[in-house]
Amino acid sequence: MPRDGSGPDFIEAVARGLDVITAFRPDRPTMTLAEVAAAANLARPTARRFLLTLEQLGYVRLADRGYALTPRVLDLGVAYVRSLGLWDVARPHLERLVARTDESCSIAQLDGSDIIYVARVARPKIVALAVQIGTRFPALPTSLGKVQLAALSDDEVERVLAQPSRSGLTPRWQPTRAERDEVLREVRARGWAVTDEQLALGIRSVAAPLRDGSGRVIAAVNVNCHAAETPVERLLEHHLPALLQTAGDISADYARLDSVPHTVST
């Protein structure tokens, strides 16, 4: 996979090690040495050294037909989520929102042209796409992505969406630029976004932005439902007011947390 890093301070070995980790996907949880080398664009001897190093560090294990990641890889993502402090702030609010709507609720952040899930409280229901912490989807056809893209300038939207998605999913909705811009204008005007089976069949959701103390959009929170069970009218008339209240409460709590001086022990 291509890397954009360059310059005297860029450490190629670190980038290659991360390439090996991110080569593993839901559709290829176990890979042979040759498959890892091909997916990470590495020579086989180089890939082997990285795999052996990652195995010794506990991030990779030997499997029946090659190599697989271990749960320790989750430490990398959890460290990021914990560093934000967002999960600790959002968790009780998400739990109350799930109780009010009886639907799964999530928080995601924009990462290039994708969204990546950083917090989630789920209801056990049959849905078309499995979602967990770290799952990524193309941003534009999701409600979580729309509200974050709408917070950007037109130039920033162009720059972000020019980046290739790393989700591996082709969404159902493929808008023209004019259609996309019109949707984002509507989202900016009303302050929330809805998606109705634009990402995949059966997926319907509504999302609102989360803001820090300066008013900057830092993430988005949504209520997700199955299209066959929850009509758009219920999503907007019942779930949306609860969602907007939750988004405001999380943003207020996060702003208060962010305003507390952080001391460093010496």
Protein described:
Helix content is 44%, strand content 20%. The protein contains 9 helices and 9 strands. The chain starts with 11 loop residues before the first helix and ends in a 7-residue tail after the last helix. The protein is globular. The protein has a 6-stranded antiparallel beta sheet with strand order 6-5-4-9-8-7. Mean pLDDT is 87; it is low at 262-266. Helix 1 (12-22) crosses helix 2, helix 2 packs across helix 3 and helix 5 packs antiparallel against helix 9 (232-259). It folds into 2 domains: 12-69, Winged helix-like DNA-binding domain superfamily/Winged helix DNA-binding domain (Arc Repressor Mutant, subunit A, Orthogonal Bundle); 76-259, Beta-Lactamase, CATH 3.30.450.40. The chain has helices spanning 12-22, 33-40, 44-57, 74-84, 86-101, 143-149, 154-161, 177-190, 232-259; strands at 30-31, 60-63, 66-69, 104-111, 114-121, 136-138, 193-196, 203-211, 217-226. With 266 residues, it is an alpha+beta fold.
